[in-house]
Specification:
By secondary structure, this protein is of the alpha+beta class. The protein has 3 domains: 24-188, 2-Layer Sandwich (Beta-Lactamase); 203-265; 286-354 and 363-407, Histidine kinase-like ATPase, C-terminal domain (Heat Shock Protein 90), CATH 3.30.565. Helix content is 45%, strand content 21%. The protein has 10 helices and 14 strands. The chain has helices at residues 25-46, 51-65, 108-115, 134-138, 171-199, 205-232, 236-261, 270-284, 302-323, 367-378; strands at 11-12, 70-77, 82-89, 100-102, 119-121, 143-150, 155-163, 267-269, 288-294, 299-301, 330-339, 343-350, 382-387, 392-399. The strands form 3 sheets. A 7-stranded mixed beta sheet has the order 1-5-6-7-2-3-4, sandwiched between helices. A 5-stranded mixed beta sheet has the order 9-11-12-14-13, with helices on one face. Strand 11 and strand 12 (343-350) form a beta hairpin. The N and C termini lie far apart (53 Å). GO terms for molecular function: ATP binding; protein histidine kinase activity. InterPro entries: GAF, GAF-like_dom_sf, HATPase_C_sf, HATPase_dom, His_kinase_dom, Sig_transdc_His_kin-like_C, Sig_transdc_His_kin_sub2_dim/P.
Length: 407
């Protein structure tokens, strides 16, 4: 495509005629892993991770997803008209946080920033559109891919992935990179708003409610888009991953909806919140009937409540996927109740075939159980498996007030 094409289409090097994507099993596994990584990044961003850590984690996971040796987040510095390497992976010492490249049209990243169009260059040494930055040449990089990182009303910079290998980036890789940039862009916007709102919190409570309302609406749009793509993708494995991602986003959206409706903008009734999440899942998981018994009146901070609800979401999804495999469906029982004065219990039980032999909570293999164990640890809780005849019960015990003062 020509650099001056209209409509924001990606700028890609021409490929030899007849060259088609190699839809091998390895490629399919890579696409599945890319979807998992986008889900991980989305959850991390929505949980409000430290911004610098989020940038570094985005660079690391992006490089992994694209099987590239290098990745960097470039922040645009208008006063210098340069792009600072804010975060990255694979680079020599002294690059991240210090090195910068020109933000003009003569570099791949500058071209993406100035035109707003994604750029793929699989043969930098033959490029005529722009020069190869000295940083890339020194690291022996042959190919690069760039997409713009949007900020709050103006570009934050560029997300770039680079490689020494002779392989080629393709359109599907670009779609993943743009997805990662979109998630990071939402986090950048959220970071900017959070800084501005913190100083005016006492005087502008209504603004926070409006923000929550808009976030909820935006997340529901994301949920709808994921559900549409799940129906149209034409691949059962990818469909399942997209549907699970949609359920996670929907669980977080319901939290923002409850905060918007309530009088308290930073705390919520965990029992009522989880009841709503289970109601949504009951409507979307057709082959299972979800029964919920939740004690009301146990208030949690929004962040802790979202984490707890995502634990319930993943355990229900796990039961729906594995417990009734090969059967028409069955019952999933969810219970939330206080334990003594300072703890609560979350129980998710099915009446299915039980966990497979060799299943180890300490080393879960699936993304869903990794999310469960990660959030339980974050909440300073414990989780155990109880075997029944029939079925399996996961029991999570959480402190009502975290020792780390999350509430």
């Amino acid at each position: 495509m020509c650099p001056d094409n209209e409509g924001g289409a990606p700028v890609v090097e021409a490929s030899p005629a007849g060259d088609a994507p190699d839809l091998t099993l390895r490629a399919l596994h890579q696409r599945i892993r890319q979807q998992e990584i986008l889900a991980e990044l989305g959850v991390t961003a929505l949980q409000g991770a430290d911004f610098d850590k989020l940038l570094a984690e985005t660079a690391r996971l992006t490089a992994e997803a694209l099987r590239a040796e290098f990745c960097k987040v470039l922040e645009y510095i208008p006063s210098e008209n340069r792009l600072l390497v804010r975060a990255g992976v694979g680079w020599d010492e002294g690059i991240v946080g210090k090195a910068s490249i020109g933000a003009d049209l003569a570099s791949p990243a500058g071209f993406a920033l100035r035109t707003g169009k994604p750029v793929i260059s699989n043969h930098l040494e033959n490029e005529e559109r722009f020069r190869t930055p000295e940083m890339l040449a020194q690291h022996g990089i042959h190919r690069a891919m760039n997409v713009i990182l949007q900020g709050d009303g103006r570009p934050f910079g560029v997300l770039e992935v680079d490689s020494r290998s002779e392989d080629e980036f393709v359109e599907q890789d670009l779609a993943f990179l743009q997805g990662a940039a979109n998630i990071l862009g939402m986090a950048i916007e959220r970071e900017h708003h959070a800084r501005n709102l913190e100083a005016a919190l006492e005087r502008h409570q209504v603004l926070l409610k409006e923000m929550g309302h808009r976030v909820k609406n935006s997340l529901m749009i994301v949920t709808s888009m994921l559900q549409l793509q799940a129906r149209d993708i034409g691949d059962p494995t990818l469909t399942l991953h997209l549907e699970e991602a949609a359920q996670r986003v929907s669980a977080v959206a319901r939290a923002h909806d409850q905060l918007f409706q309530g009088a308290n903008i930073d705390r919520m009734d965990l029992g009522k919140y989880v009841e709503g999440v289970c109601k949504d899942l009951d409507a979307s998981v057709a082959h299972c009937i979800i029964h919920t018994e939740a004690q009301h009146g146990m208030e949690f901070s929004a962040d802790r409540a979202i984490s707890a609800a995502l634990v319930v979401n993943e355990l229900i999804a796990n039961a729906a996927k594995h417990a009734y495999r090969g059967k028409q469906g069955g019952r999933v029982q969810v219970r939330i109740a206080g334990v003594g004065e300072d703890k609560l219990s979350i129980s998710v039980r099915d009446e299915g075939t039980g966990v497979p032999q060799g299943f180890d909570l300490a080393q879960p293999k699936g993304l869903g159980m990794r999310i469960v164990t990660s959030f339980v640890t974050q909440l300073n809780g414990t989780i155990e498996i109880r075997h029944h005849n029939p079925g399996t019960e996961f029991v999570v015990i959480l402190p009502r007030e975290s020792p780390r003062k999350f509430c």
